[in-house]
Amino acid sequence: MMAAAGGNFSDEEFWKACAELQQPAVAGKWELLLETSGISVYRLLEESTWLYKYKIFGVLKDCSPALLKEVYMDLGYRKQWDQYVNELYEKECDGETLVYWQVAYPFPMYNRDYVYIRELRELDMEGRKIYVILAKSTSSSQFPERSGVIRVNQYQQSLAIESDGKGGSRGDLNTKINQKVQKFSIG
């Protein structure tokens, strides 16, 4: 498990993720998509792009925050359980650890790929341990765009995890993806 070198994200970004965990902001035009087993999934349409932001809040009763953090950061393990992973690995580039992730999409759509940095911090908020993982897209000549794959150039994600006080985890996951127009393969 590796995290990106420090300095890619501000302290303010980490504390903002903690604040969102304490007081989920879903007022206004956020739409509840799903609520099951203690997990709620919301989305918000960004009218300027016609794309959605997503938020997931909830409690995993049988998973400690430390284990959830390890699973989230372990790219090798993700390749075992996520059938949509085509490629997923870390690479050192100019002193930073970058992640390359290619997601398989069904025919006739093209696969998507991401190049991003991520950073994990363990924060203390009034005596409570909170793990915060931030990720955002970046570019690097080490990862040129590939023919037949759509590069997602605007990707942001924050994950904040803390104990639910009963041996499980309480978490908040926010994702914003802005990708190019859908491309299809006809053939």
TrEMBL record:
Cited SMART domains: START (SM00234)
One Pfam family this sequence matches: START
Limits of the START domain: 1-177
Entry GO terms, CC: cytosol
Localization (cell): Cytoplasm
Main location: cytoplasm
One MF term in the entry's GO annotations: phosphatidylcholine transporter activity
InterPro entries given in the database record: START-like_dom_sf, START_lipid-bd_dom, START_lipid_transfer
Subunit structure: Interacts with ACOT13/THEM2.
Protein name (database record): Phosphatidylcholine transfer protein
